[in-house]
């Protein structure tokens, strides 16, 4: 749930006329790395990391950790080496020995993703502390975050930062700027019940201040409103959060909550109800690309499963999870490590087995996109065997790059992220 952007993408979008042209980078048209350009062997994925290197590395490391796999030490070292002295992370720095300067395009999404990964792995208090301090320093006056420091707040960036704060042991509700917390920023992006798409989250307000329902932003907004991050444990298991995570949807059914006492838990309930209703029509969400027929959005569907599980709507995860088990293989193989991580997060959140996901071992597939993992820890050796290293065959996460360009086209300069300001079914 989340996006990776950079100054290069912003420039590209401006030149080619906003969000339309990048749509040509469809699911079957992945941009490939130049044969003459070598990327670090410690990096997950074999294609150009310019826009998503830290993002995909962070998700890969975190996903491996959640299933008991100890990532290669050099993969973790590569991630920590990408941090600037300010504490922020850029999507990718080819020469990590060079100091970051004013031209280094750091962003909140890469930084927050790295925090969640490093906090989970442990032993990186200094790096996590520096990154969290930077995130706090660039919080907007409305309590939220944009993709870049000072950029307009959006639901996806605000939510991924909430996840980072919670992972670092902070309480997001106490991170206040100008009297506003991150939850206030998300509440402001919750579409009112009496409007079209009521209950969903908008990515950002439009130029007139109106809120349009966006399924991608809704999946992120639900998780963020509950004070959670990428990793959601299946029902019955404790999940790290901020204490704001009571699943109000368990008692309110599908009713859209509103009123003067509207809370983050209410917003999460509304968003989960919106996603559940959308997925009841078809077991997957769709991407509405300008001028093109809507196509299944595998990443957003996986994120929706995580959001529904986080909100306690576990029964609503069955259909989309089964659909992903049957249909996501080709997408994940093309999209690469972050896609496998998203599927692992979805499987774990819904109580499925990442090592037998529609007959596919997602853990092995993820491990094959990067350096060989360390020997299993004593606690996980019995249930989570070490991933084997094979040749890199994954392709760049195209949906995320498309989302990057789409979002950049509307002036924010995030998830997954594959996060764009589009109307979802």
From TrEMBL:
UniProt-annotated stretches for the region Disordered: 240-260
Keywords: Membrane, Signal, Transmembrane, Transmembrane helix
Matches recorded under InterPro entries: Terpenoid_cyclase/PrenylTrfase (IPR008930)
Secretion signal span: 1-26
Positions of transmembrane segments: 398-416
Gene3D superfamilies linked to this entry: 1.50.10.20
SUPFAM superfamilies from the UniProt entry: Terpenoid cyclases/Protein prenyltransferases
Coiled-coil region(s): none
Regions of compositional bias (Low complexity) in chain numbering: 240-255
Protein name in UniProt: Secreted protein
Lineage of producing organism: Bacteria, Bacillati, Actinomycetota, Actinomycetes, Kitasatosporales
């Amino acid at each position: 749930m989340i996006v990776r952007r950079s100054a290069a993408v912003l420039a590209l979008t401006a030149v080619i006329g906003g969000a339309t042209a990048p749509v040509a980078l469809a699911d079957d048209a992945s941009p490939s790395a130049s044969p003459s350009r070598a990327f670090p062997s410690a990096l997950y994925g074999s294609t150009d990391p310019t826009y998503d290197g830290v993002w995909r590395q962070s998700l890969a490391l975190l996903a491996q950790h959640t299933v008991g796999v100890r990532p290669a030490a050099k993969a973790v070292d590569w991630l920590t080496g990408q941090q600037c002295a300010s504490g922020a992370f850029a999507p990718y720095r080819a020469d990590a020995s060079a100091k970051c300067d004013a031209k280094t395009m750091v962003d909140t999404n890469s930084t927050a993703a790295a925090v969640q990964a490093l906090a989970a792995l442990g032993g990186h208090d200094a790096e996590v502390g520096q990154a969290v301090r930077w995130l706090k320093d660039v919080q907007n006056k409305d309590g939220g975050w944009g993709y870049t420091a000072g950029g307009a707040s959006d639901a996806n960036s605000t939510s991924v930062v909430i996840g980072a704060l919670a992972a670092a042991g902070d309480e997001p509700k106490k991170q206040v700027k100008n009297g506003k917390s991150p939850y206030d920023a998300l509440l402001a992006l919750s579409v009112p019940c009496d409007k079209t798409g009521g209950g969903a989250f908008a990515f950002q307000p439009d130029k007139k201040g109106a809120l349009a329902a966006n399924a991608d932003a809704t999946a992120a907004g639900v998780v963020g409103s509950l004070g959670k991050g990428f990793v959601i444990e299946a029902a019955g298991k404790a999940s790290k959060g901020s204490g704001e995570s009571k699943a109000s949807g368990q008692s309110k059914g599908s009713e859209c909550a509103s009123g003067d006492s509207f809370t983050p838990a209410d917003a999460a309930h509304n968003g989960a109800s919106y996603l559940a209703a959308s997925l009841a029509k078809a077991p997957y969400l769709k991407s509405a690309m300008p001028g093109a027929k809507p196509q299944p959005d595998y990443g957003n569907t996986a994120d929706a499963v995580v959001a529904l599980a986080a909100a306690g709507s576990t029964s609503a995860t069955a259909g989309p999870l089964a659909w992903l088990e049957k249909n996501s293989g080709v997408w994940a193989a093309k999209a690469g490590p972050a896609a496998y991580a998203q599927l692992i997060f979805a499987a774990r959140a819904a109580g499925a087995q990442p090592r037998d996901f529609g007959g596919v071992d997602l853990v092995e597939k993820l491990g094959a996109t990067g350096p060989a993992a360390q020997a299993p820890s004593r606690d996980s050796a019995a249930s989570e065997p070490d991933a084997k290293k094979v040749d890199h065959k994954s392709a760049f996460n195209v949906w995320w790059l498309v989302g990057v360009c789409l979002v950049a086209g509307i002036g924010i300069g995030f998830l997954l992220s594959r996060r764009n300001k589009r109307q979802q079914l």
